[in-house]
Design brief:
This protein is mainly beta. The protein contains one helix and six strands; from the N terminus they run ββββαββ.
């Protein structure tokens, strides 16, 4: 007989069963950034950023994937956050929000900040959109 254990988010900061997580950032299904892994932590803080030129932000999709890096496994997905830029940047050019992790074996929230800086350019229609 074992006493009941708390269920839900882990309140421990370190432990043997906690994930070694890292994030990947994809823009239009192309890998643009990967953070370093945070070893066995229930509340990892990545504080990492990247800057990318986007030909057409109105049709762009940014996907943030949180993965678990463990020995002898194929980095299972803890959660995914897909962001359609036209919806996120609808009223502001700088957004910071909490998003729930969905579609993986884990749970939790991730805080994502996006900053849009415009560049004056005229591209022909055939150069806009995805590759």
């Amino acid at each position: 007989f074992e006493p009941a254990k708390p269920f839900g988010e882990s309140t421990e900061e370190e432990g043997g069963e906690l994930p070694t997580s890292y994030c990947t950032i994809l823009y239009n299904d192309e890998l643009v950034y990967r953070t370093r892994a945070k070893a066995v932590s229930s509340q990892p803080i990545f504080n990492a950023g990247t800057e990318r030129f986007m030909r057409d932000w109105r049709s762009g999709i940014v996907t943030v994937t949180v993965r678990d890096q463990r020995h002898r496994e194929h980095d299972p997905i803890l959660g995914v956050v897909p962001l359609k830029l036209s919806d996120v940047l609808e009223s502001k050019s700088q957004v910071t929000r909490w998003y729930p992790l969905d579609g993986g074996i884990g749970f939790g929230r991730i805080r994502i900040s996006l900053l849009f800086r415009s560049v004056e350019t005229r591209l022909p229609p055939m150069m806009l959109g995805w590759d």
